[in-house]
Write a structure and sequence with these properties.
By secondary structure, this protein is mainly alpha-helical. It has one domain: Hypothetical protein af1432 (Orthogonal Bundle), CATH 1.10.3210. A two-stranded antiparallel sheet has the order 1-2. Helix 2 packs antiparallel against helix 3, helix 2 packs across helix 7 and helix 3 runs parallel beside helix 7. The protein is globular. It starts with 6 loop residues before the first helix and ends in a 12-residue tail after the last helix.
Length: 206
């Protein structure tokens, strides 16, 4: 296989890999946030590949259910799996969703940056603020001093990325919270990816 998996192909892979339903729902929310931001960035001239963003969002936790048992780095194991399937672009996006090397100020926003940021806005299956998400991460993973420091550094990096993203958009990070009202995420993603024309700005995404 080559290129980028389509929406149905990504869902099929999640099913074939036995990804747990609650993890699938988390992945859907991450894809929803990432694709929404990608569409809005395209409206202001950013060269965002929405198909890559969507595939990366849906597949970023492809092997997390295994890591819960083995303790492996699920970003790396998912990256390897996607490389085996012949999807190197998606593999790179997925491999960077835990630890990310951000682009320099002024550089175009990359697909992996959107998926990384979207993942930091989704707590389980709910879209939340960065502050709420990192409180949750510290409570779950910050038991040791080294872990707390690592999470603090990730939070500072993510705040910088958030400023880079929203500096280019006509609204702030709180707008993303409205996506919690989307009920048919799969249908919404399908519509966004299949639409070749820009939605007039006066129309809302809900």
């Amino acid at each position: 296989m080559a290129g980028i998996p389509g929406l149905e192909e990504a869902y099929r892979l999640l099913h074939e890999e036995g990804v747990l339903p609650h993890i699938v729902r988390h992945c859907e929310k991450v894809a929803l946030v990432a694709v929404f931001l990608g569409r809005e960035l395209r409206r202001v001239g950013e060269p965002v590949n929405l198909a890559l963003v969507c595939a990366g969002g849906l597949l970023h936790d492809l092997t997390k259910h295994h890591s819960l048992r083995t303790g492996e780095n699920h970003a790396e194991s998912a990256r390897r799996k996607l490389l085996e399937l012949g999807w190197p672009e998606v593999a790179e996006v997925v491999g960077n969703h835990i630890f990310l090397k951000p682009g320099p100020p002024g550089a175009p926003i990359r697909a992996d940056e959107l998926v990384y940021y979207a993942d930091k806005r989704v707590r389980h299956e709910e879209i939340v603020s960065l502050r709420e998400r990192f409180v949750d991460l510290r409570e779950r993973y910050g038991r040791r001093p080294a872990s707390w420091v690592r999470i603090f550094r990730l939070e500072e990096l993510t705040k910088l990325l958030e400023r880079r993203i929203f500096k280019r958009l006509p609204f702030g990070p709180e707008r993303v919270l409205e996506l919690n009202r989307v009920e048919d995420i799969r249908g919404c993603l399908t519509a966004w990816l299949s639409s070749a024309e820009e939605i007039p700005r006066k129309e809302r995404f809900l």
